[in-house]
């Protein structure tokens, strides 16, 4: 049953007017916390934005008003080394988190926690949507939610009762992702054109926002120009120096 639930995931951007209760949120967060964590550092925190004024500002700054204002709960998923700094202080130690490895650990921990939270929510009949748009104005959003040194937002996550559901978008075939014993890039010459046909057929037949496009064309356009170049300087201000 869990496998089938995972295979039916689609982002939800249109929610019913029902807010999650504190009990419901606490249950989802507790379940999400049981995600794996490198060396058990648990280098993540989540900010639940309930204040209406802050939620409005978050919607504007992330450029995602429909999801942020319509969802049943709005979460800001963060990498967090501030709590670990306090743990060090309790033991008379100044911890260091300004190495690239710490960044990888923190982002991985936050991602595993977020995906656990998403799966927990979907298992209860809710819909979810990740909001990478919080990185559009990452410094302003950090100030809005009073994030200290060692803490930064990775993405937002909206949860709510779906008013409408989108069709499941076809993923790359397993053989494109799975390599046995060694990485094989030669297979992409055959796999990617076939996948483009699948995606083009999906875009042309879905119930809303029909268009003619392919996956490779989208990726070529998306990755051919810099994305959010302000992130590196912001992370340095938060203490992440990539040593």
Automatic annotation (TrEMBL):
Domain (Nitroreductase): residue spans on this chain: 8-160
Any one Pfam family match given in the protein's UniProt record, by short name: Nitroreductase
Alphabetized InterPro entries for the sequence: Flavin_OxRdtase_Frp, Nitroreductase, Nitroreductase-like
Keywords linked to the UniProt accession: Flavoprotein, FMN, NADP, Oxidoreductase
Gene Ontology molecular-function annotations: oxidoreductase activity
Record has Oxidoreductase as a keyword: yes
Keyword check for Oxidoreductase: yes
NCBIfam families assigned to the protein according to its UniProt record, in alphabetical order: PRK10765.1
Family statement: Belongs to the flavin oxidoreductase frp family.
UniProt-recorded name of the protein: Nitroreductase A
Organism: Planococcus lenghuensis
